[in-house]
Design brief:
Layout (H helix, E strand, L loop, with lengths): L4 H8 L23 E5 L7 H5 L25 H8 L19 E3 L14 H4 L6 H20 L4 H4 L12 E5 L2 H10 L2 H24 L4 E5 L29 H24 L4 E5 L1 H9 L16 E4 L2 E4 L3 E4 L2 E4 L19 H11 L5 E2 L12
Parallel strand pairs: 1-2, 1-3, 3-4, 4-5
Antiparallel strand pairs: 5-10, 6-7, 8-9
């Protein structure tokens, strides 16, 4: 990681455990976040769904971890780069029972999660049973059990693997969820019906923030949803589409318009939350703009065509997913990785490659795409 102003401030100034309105972040110490607690879907799942259901196979994870790591990626996700930026360990999945350490946070995200509960199973369309409200229930239990373990005078080894109860208020709470709510909508509703559901969806996310606030959380980092219409999977089985269906980057126009509408309502709700929660520092992160900025400028940024899928076999209408076995032209084939994942935007047609995640992380974590425009190292300051 870079040795910049944030590190110098950490050395020479006192830690900011509790920041208040009126302090100018540019002239203040970096926040001393003791932990990160994340809530989300596969864009930030570090092993939850892989622990509960079928493990994610190779070549997932092999680009950085050199083995499957429970992530839908060849390497690191944006949440991993957040941990690196804050000088914290990578987050263990709450649902993973082996080899975990929660001293500096926990990850409640699972692949396929939605904000609203869905009336279907993961075996139908890949929707996780752990919707956001369930993730919050898990966090509440995690927090209470941590407190109880300290009251029971557990040994030092066990203490080294769980948070210090007093530090929950000094943690950063991150949210990266909502894409699957749109995905379900595209499959089951028309656009007018989808728009009608959005206020309830964003209110449920707001209620999750409120729940954590009521239990002492004060710093929140909320991602909006990305340009879902730009996922290469949208090109599958698309023949003779009407004019205007795709934009000039091969993104589905209507899907991106719905994502933009969702993001507008989410941002408006975050603004209201800042009034409702007078001691909260809530940062709204425009992941959509950052990701679309990459997709619309891949050549100049050194990336391949954003519609090119790195891992898997996708030729004409034959699709063998990353890490899976299949048959094409009478031959058995395996969904392998491309020769140069470091130039890929899309890893498997749905999820971004590590290089793209890193590119996006570099631009959101410095405050270039946030409201207020502050780096994540100063996200404890209320504006």
């Amino acid at each position: 990681m870079t040795m910049g102003l944030g590190l110098l401030l950490l050395i020479f100034l006192l830690p900011c455990y509790y920041c208040v309105r009126g302090v100018e972040p540019a002239n203040s110490a970096a926040c001393a976040f003791s932990a990160v607690y994340n809530f989300g879907d596969s864009n930030s799942d570090t092993g939850g769904i892989s622990a509960v259901f079928v493990p994610i196979p190779p070549p997932y994870g092999e680009g950085f971890f050199h083995k499957p790591s429970g992530r839908d990626c060849d390497g690191r996700l944006i949440i991993d780069f957040i941990a690196e930026k804050l000088n914290l360990p990578y987050l263990s999945a709450y649902l993973n029972s082996l080899g975990t350490n929660y001293r500096h946070g926990a990850n409640f995200a699972t692949g396929g999660s939605t904000i609203r509960r869905q009336n279907e199973t993961i075996f139908q369309y890949g929707i996780s049973p752990f919707s956001l409200d369930m993730q919050i229930v898990q966090f509440d239990q995690f927090k209470e059990r941590t407190k109880q373990m300290y009251q029971d005078n557990i040994n030092s080894v066990d203490k080294s693997r769980i948070p210090v109860p007093e530090e929950f208020s000094k943690a950063l709470y991150t949210f990266d969820i909502g894409q699957n709510d749109l995905s379900v909508g595209f499959r089951t509703m028309n656009f007018d019906q989808m728009r009608a559901t959005m206020p309830d969806i964003v209110n449920q996310l707001a209620n999750a923030v409120k729940n954590i606030y009521e239990r002492g959380g004060r710093s929140f980092w909320v991602h909006n949803t990305g340009p879902i219409g730009c996922l290469p999977v949208n090109l599958f089985y698309k023949h003779n589409v009407p004019p205007g269906y795709f934009d000039k980057y091969q993104c589905v126009n209507d899907q991106n318009l719905m994502a933009q509408e969702f993001n507008k309502q989410l941002k408006d709700r975050v603004i209201k939350l800042r009034i409702e929660l007078p001691e909260a520092a809530i940062t709204y992160v425009d992941v959509y703009a950052a990701k679309y900025g990459l997709i619309s400028n891949t050549k100049n940024e050194g990336f391949d065509d954003p519609m090119k899928i790195c891992c898997g076999y996708h030729v004409n209408d034959t699709h063998i997913w990353c890490g899976n076995l299949g048959t094409a032209n009478g031959k058995d084939l395996y969904g392998t990785a491309c020769e140069k994942p470091s130039a890929a935007v899309s890893w498997d047609g749905v999820h971004y490659a590590e290089a793209a995640n890193h590119w996006v992380a570099n631009r959101i974590l410095n405050g270039s795409f946030t409201d207020p425009p502050i780096p994540i190292t100063q996200a404890c300051y209320r504006q």
